[in-house]
Design goal:
Blueprint lengths: L1 H58 L4 H53 L7 H24 L1
């Protein structure tokens, strides 16, 4: 019994060694072949199934009135989406016109101020920036005098 057990173990070791030798020699080729077969196996049957199932559902047991109703609903939905899109475009155009008009009026106002000798650009931004910098300077100055 131990002789048969040793023979079985010897055969197992021999098969294992031969397998490792094949993998060492042709490992990359085996890997490439397996991935190619895997992609073929997963991709091709699914496309065959989907096309055959689509054809069977498209052409069998379908009433023409049902198809016409579905097409009418689809067309109504498309028209509704197109109307919403057109409304949004019109709103956007109106907003753009308002912005352009405001910009044009601002430029005219700035030019008129320049002609009056009040300066070319509005000084509101400059005055606001000056006030904020004065406030920051006052805070920094109070820290320096308080610490000393």
């Amino acid at each position: 019994m131990s002789e048969t057990f040793e023979l079985v173990l010897d055969n197992i070791y021999h098969v294992r060694d031969a397998t490792f030798e094949i993998i060492e020699s042709y490992g990359w080729l085996i890997l490439i072949c397996f991935t190619f077969v895997f992609f073929l196996w997963t991709y091709l049957p699914s496309t065959r199934r989907s096309t055959s199932s689509n054809m069977s559902t498209n052409y069998s047991n379908v009433d023409s009135s049902t198809l016409l109703e579905k097409e009418a609903k689809r067309q109504a939905a498309v028209e509704a989406m197109q109307r919403r899109l057109d409304e949004n475009v019109e709103k956007f155009k109106e907003k753009q016109k308002i912005k352009e008009e405001e910009g044009r009026l601002k430029k005219i106002n700035d030019w008129e101020q320049h002609e009056k000798g009040l300066g070319y650009k509005s000084k509101m931004k400059y005055e606001a920036a000056k006030e904020s910098s004065e406030k920051q300077f006052a805070k920094k100055g109070s820290r320096r005098t308080g610490g000393g």
